[in-house]
């Protein structure tokens, strides 16, 4: 209801994205950790709700791995595919459009499609803000973790847990642009599913 009330987007359970957590060059499988921006990192998937609470965190993948693969192989994806959740996630164009995962129209051509994309962006920005709050609260996630990938994964998960404790206690930091996601250009995904597009078209016609 939060998302519908404030942004007009219906039935949203959360917003999803990946964020790079910088690490030192590992001694094993080093090339796998070089992300598309050229530095060593993890690629960490997170989902947040309307209160900046992290409801899902997958911290185990090297920086070179695409967002869509991380999501496809995650337990939360399988749960949505199996109908365990009634609602949708919002993701950027790095994700495939699925019945439970709405992405923007790649080339909006009607007023409804433009309004859909505008509302989608306005809603999905909360995951960027969540990254900003998290990395401002735990600056090591912003500046980088000089440890092994395995320990960096554990630290990231611990920070996400502590972040949620802060949210539960209404200890919410302001964020600034220095801490907002540094992902850069989105890697466009071309694996959209027709049933996902049909749901997107229905939402567009019905609400925008």
From TrEMBL:
It comes from the Eukaryota. One of its GO terms (cellular component) is nucleus. Residues 16-164 form the DDE Tnp4 domain. Pfam families: DDE_Tnp_4. Its cofactor is a divalent metal cation. Keywords: Cytoplasm, Hydrolase, Metal-binding, Nuclease, Nucleus. It is found in: Cytoplasm; Nucleus. One of its GO terms (molecular function) is nuclease activity. Its main location: cytoplasm. Belongs to the HARBI1 family. Transposase-derived protein that may have nuclease activity. Does not have transposase activity. This is Putative nuclease HARBI1. It comes from Crassostrea virginica (Eastern oyster). The lineage of its organism: Eukaryota, Metazoa, Spiralia, Lophotrochozoa, Mollusca.
């Amino acid at each position: 209801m939060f998302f519908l009330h404030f942004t007009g987007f219906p039935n949203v359970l959360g917003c999803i994205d990946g964020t790079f957590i910088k690490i030192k060059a590992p001694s094993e499988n080093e090339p796998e950790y070089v992300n598309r921006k050229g530095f060593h990192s993890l690629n960490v998937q997170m989902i947040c709700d309307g209160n900046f609470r992290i409801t899902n965190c997958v911290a185990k993948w090297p920086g070179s791995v695409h967002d869509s693969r991380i999501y496809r192989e995650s337990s939360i994806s399988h749960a949505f595919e199996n109908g365990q959740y009634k609602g949708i996630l919002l993701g950027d164009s790095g994700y495939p459009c699925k019945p439970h995962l709405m992405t923007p129209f790649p080339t909006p051509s009607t007023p409804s499609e433009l309004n859909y994309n505008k509302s989608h962006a306005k809603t999905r920005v909360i995951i960027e803000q969540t990254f900003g709050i998290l990395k401002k609260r735990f600056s090591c996630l912003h500046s980088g973790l000089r440890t092994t990938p395995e320990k960096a994964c554990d630290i990231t998960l611990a920070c996400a847990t502590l972040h949620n404790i802060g949210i539960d206690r209404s200890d919410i930091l302001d964020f600034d642009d220095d801490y907002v996601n540094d992902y850069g250009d989105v890697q466009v995904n071309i694996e959209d599913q027709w049933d996902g597009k049909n749901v997107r078209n229905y939402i567009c016609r019905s609400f925008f």
